[in-house]
Amino acid sequence: MLDKVKELIGDVSAFNATTKDEIEAFRIKFLSKKGILNDLFAEFKNVAPAERKEFGQVLNTLKNAAQDKVNQLKDALENASEQKGIYGDLTRPEEPIELGSRHPISIVRNKIIDVFSRIGFTVSEGPEIEDDWHNFTALNLPEYHPARDMQDTFFIETNPDILLRTHTSSVQVRYMENHKPPIRTISPGRVFRNEDISARAHCIFHQVEGLYIDTDVSFADLKQTLLYFTKEMFGKSKIRLRPSYFPFTEPSAEVDIYWGLETETDYKITKGTGWLEIMGCGMVDPNVLKNANIDPEIYSGYAFGMGIERIAMLLYQIPDIRMFYENDVRFLEQFKSVI
Ligand code: DAH
Asked: Each residue of 67-97: pLDDT tens digit?
């Protein structure tokens, strides 16, 4: 009997529990009315008188050990739940919030806006779903004009008058219809063309259109503005204007900047010439002014248009235009430090 009680003392001291239920089961087993201890105390009368003293002492030891064990386990459980709890440790510093990064298209667009807003240009926007008038006709591209073919257009099937704008030049027309000169505005936005997707071309891309209308605006003003822009945007101050054709400007030009031939990439992107085309521009055609109810006898102006993807590809050496639209975080995270 004595040995049995001593064994139980060993069991009690070795016992461990991590849940309330386990502790309660232990308490019931040893300390409840029908528990082991009460049973043992009931045995008292059957113990030989000479052994009763020792038996009593050992029983008391078992009882105290069981009681201590229950208290100790309950305390431990309470401490643990205070620390972890459902809220965790409220005194600990917060997990750092993962900061996202701006998309390279947004970074470049913001930079362009910043450069032009410093010389008084406002930002204007127009709809992506456009009508024929604003995208083509008012821009001196009447129906059947061959230049319409240059811009593979997505039309709305049920209404050939409605289309996805092929360029942000449509915003020029809308802006002139609603504002009186002097006008200085740039219009960034998304444009759509029915083109095969490749490393160089996509059916959705972004442009920034610029428009300046006032009295006595000359080609020299245009050239000076372009020079300022390329200096601020790329840190390069050598440009050249190549005669070109756009229906909405006369004369028209394409703008090249001298990128240089310092690295192998420079050779590659400039095809060994050092020169790189970055935008189209020209003096607003008098017909376009007329179409927007601005008198070409009083006012003149210049316009320009550039592709944002192309500039971002240049600035960040991005080899494939499709990377802009894949939303691969390994690509996007690389722009974290750029703002
Ligand atoms: N709209 C032309 C395009 O999408 C770009 C452009 C060229 C805009 C010359 C202009 C301009 O305003 O003057 O290719």
From this structure: 999 999 888 888 776 666 667 778 888 888 8
Q: What are the boundaries of each domain within the chain?
A: 2-87, 104-334
Q: Please tell me the distance between residue 337's alpha carbon and the centre of ligand 1 in angstroms.
A: 32
Q: Quick check: CB of 140 below 6 Å from ligand 1?
A: no
Q: For position 218, what pLDDT does the model report?
A: 97
pTM across the whole model: 0.73
Question: Distance from CA of residue 7 to its chain's centroid?
Answer: 67
| pLDDT at residue 339, as a whole number | 63
- Do the beta carbons of residue 1 and residue 43 sit within 8 Å? yes
Whether 183 contacts 124, CB under 8 Å: no
Residue-level pLDDT at 324? 96
Ligand 1: centre distance to CA 182 (Å) = 20
Q: Give, for ligand 1, the residue of 304, 309, 311 to mutate: max count of ligand atoms closer than 8 Å to Cβ.
A: 304
Q: Any idea which architecture 104-334 has in CATH?
A: 2-Layer Sandwich (3.30)
> Following CA atoms 310, 311, 312, 315 in sequence, which dihedral angle do they give, to the nearest 10 degrees?
130
Among protein residues, the one whose CA lies closest to atom 6 of ligand 1: 305
Percent helix, strand and coil across the chain, each to the nearest 5:
45, 20, 30
Q: Is 246 in the pocket of ligand 1 (CB under 6 A)?
A: yes
Q: Verify whether ligand 1 is closer than 6 Å to residue 249 (CB atom).
A: yes
